Amino acid sequence: MNRMSFARVSFIHLFFGAFAIVSIFPFLLVFMVSITDESSIVQNGYSILPSKINFAAYSFLFNDFAQIARSYGVTIAVTLIGTAVSLLITSLFAYPLSRRGLPMRRTLSFILFFTMLFSGGMVPWYMTYVMMFGLKNTLLAMIIPGLMLSAFNVLLMRSFFANTIPESIIESGTIDGAGELTIFLKLVVPLSAPIIATIGLFNLLAYWNDWYNCMLFIDKPELMNIQYLMTKTLNNVQFLIMKADTSSQVGDLIAKMPTETVRMALAIIGVAPLLLAYPFFQRFYISGITSGAVKG
Amino acid sequence: MEALASASRTKPAATHATASRSRHFLRQIKKYKMLLLMTLPGLVYLFVNNYIPMYGVILAFKNLNYVQGIWGSPWVGTDNFKFLFNSPDAYLITRNTILYNVAFIIVNLVLALTVALLINEIKEKVVARFYQSTFLLPHIISMVVVAYLVYSFLNADNGLVNRQLSSLFGFDSISWYNEPQHWPYILVIVNAWKGVGFLAIIYFAAIIGIDKEYYEAAIIDGAGKWKQMTSITLPLIAPVIIVMTLLAISSIMRSDFGLFYQVTMNSGPLMPTTNTIDTFVYRAMVKLGDIGMSAAAGFYQSVVCFFLILGANFAVRRISKNDALF
After folding, report:
1. Spatial distance between the Cα atoms of B85 and B74, rounded to a whole number of angstroms
2. Could you tell me if B290 lies within 8 Å of chain A, comparing CB atoms?
């Protein structure tokens, strides 16, 4: 019996060890390629154990950092504004829906819920923003369309408010003569830190990772976020230089560029903040998913 | 006569009741004024982001020109749909979308269940948590980064597969981004790599929720680990499995645009096996500028999806009423 269980335990750990390697290996490969010497790539191709290490790709990128810095600026600005506004709208919408006495509660829920069942499709959605609201090539085009209010997040928040905020607290606020807005901000919000953190994290990741809106609505390089800059560079590594610099040095720069490694170095620069932050927020993220699965 | 008289006599009473009900309603509105106002930003957003585009499906029945705008452009009836369904693309993109989803649903379900069942066997909480965070990592990154990771494997000249694995296993270099026949396998693997961890954590949460007494009783009865899994764990998390799977089936006509557009690097030769409804709609709109047909394809997708969701919900209600969406 003991030997059986030992075999079982080692099998399980082997399984998850392999799974962990499969999950992490691709990141490691891209990182190792980014610090490989170009000549070593020509000789052996991409490898997890390069024969010669060289940081030329990074120094090349840091020499001409304007576009990357700008794209990061766009991503950070959009993520901060988007997450804050989206959290505000979501909680302001979810809280009233969690209150039993609210008139038209069923109608409001239906208006929200129906958006999960039917959509007009991408084309009318795109045309609405471009032709009616003129959002093409604006920062707002990366903040507003699609990302600001997810019906799923509203439902998650609503069930949190309904299940964990005791009605007696709201009643005590009413007796003290506080208005509904005061009750929400002073009594409900402080008790709802877990769900606010979870939804905030979901929003943050959605804005940080977004390239779709940028691809649809943005043509100007100065408004491109880091994700879309990465997309453009993957398909054509010279994009990085041609957009940043239109002077006569372009040909010279392209000739000097370590093309194979520069691409991967940009990928690392683009994904590094998320990977570095991941150990700190992963617990929150996992508990967010599980609370959604159990209560949602 | 008598009845008529009594009916006419009750009538004023009835209007009185409606009047007082509407007065009551108005009082309620006044009482909850602030709460209702709080929903206003969300409502405005839903109106702009969801309901105007729903009305915009009329684009599928129009020939849009930018001078006359959405409302002024001429109606063309069902011409856009005729054009779409007479082209070979309509069949191809529908087939691709559905077959990929079927493969994704089956592969991810089997892998995620295996992972969830196994991680439940790990007694040390810290170790289990470490494993969870490793296999959730692929889920948090964008498809752009995934495209880079795949490229580092499949790049024809220097990629890991062609340069290292081909000599190890003795096969010839393959021009991955030009040969469509490999991509059904590649995309199923990539999708599983990105999505299994997420699904596994949902199933694992359901398993944790199972009352420990069932297992204690089973152990007393002499049931082994395997028996416990098949007779307790799986039947008790079956509702979660059914709901998750039906949700996936109801969106069988939708595809992850990033997976099919970014990971394939938008490569033309791969289109026969990687073009789905969503990539088709995008290409028809942006590359061909055919607003009418792309709107028609999107409308076709939305309508089929709508009925699939209603059907899936009906099925969930029959299986377990509490898990139904509506």
Report:
1. 21
2. no
Q: CB–CB of B254/B305 below 8 Å?
A: yes
pLDDT tens digits along B190-229: 999 999 999 999 999 999 989 889 999 999 998 888 899 9
Nearest chain B alpha carbon to A28: B149
Nearest partner of B295 among B96, B131, B83, B122, judged by Cα:
B83
B288 shares contact with chain A (CB less than 8 Å): no
End-to-end CA distance of chain A: 41
Letter string b/e over residues B31-54, b meaning 16 or more CB atoms within 10 A of that residue's CB: ebeebbebbebbbebbebbbbbbb
ipTM: 0.91
Provide the whole-model pTM. Answer: 0.90
Per-residue three-class SS string for B90-134: HHHHHHHHHHHHHHHHHHHHHHHHHHHHHHCCCCCHHHHHHHHHH
Q: Which residue shows structure tokens 């596994």?
A: B200
Residue range A211-256, pLDDT digits in tens: 999 999 999 989 999 999 999 988 888 777 765 555 556 667 777 7
With tokens 């093409």, the residue in question is A136
**Which residue of B35, B56, B258 is in closest CB contact with A96?**
B35
CB atoms within 10 A of CB A97: 23
DSSP 8-class letter at B74: P
